[in-house]
Amino acid sequence: MRQARKNWTREQIRAARKTPLNEVLERRGWTLRHTGAGNFVPAKHPGIIVKDCYWRNPDADSAGNTIDFLVDVIGCSFAQAMQEIMQVESTQ
Fold first, then answer.
1. Would 78 be classed as within a structural domain?
2. Does any domain span residue 3?
């Protein structure tokens, strides 16, 4: 069954991009290893560095924000990513 499309406001999308990625990943049950200076490495993707609302994969020359991680790395649709991030936002 296809999910109904939700129209997200610019403010919601902007806030989602700025949501701390480590909180989203921890909510998913991911283990993150702190490597200093506010950087974390997800156990499931040891080549990726997470800091605040950004991630970077030097080996693949890719990077992005919290939405990008859920879409590009995990494979969520944009709508799924937004719904998941908004759940984290609502618990803060």
1. yes
2. no
The percent helix, strand, coil of the chain (3-state, each to 5) is 40, 20, 40
Please state, in angstroms and rounded to a whole number, the distance separating the CA atoms of residues 89 and 16: 8
Q: How many CB atoms lie within 10 A of CB 82?
A: 19
pLDDT tens, 26-74? 999 999 999 999 999 999 999 999 999 999 999 999 999 999 999 999 9
The structure's pTM equals 0.88
Domain span at residue 21? Answer: 10-90
* 5 in a structural domain: no
**Does a structural domain hold residue 82?**
yes
Is 59 strand, coil or helix? Answer: coil
**Rounded to 10 degrees, what is the CA torsion of 9, 13, 18, 23?**
110
The total domain count for the chain is 1
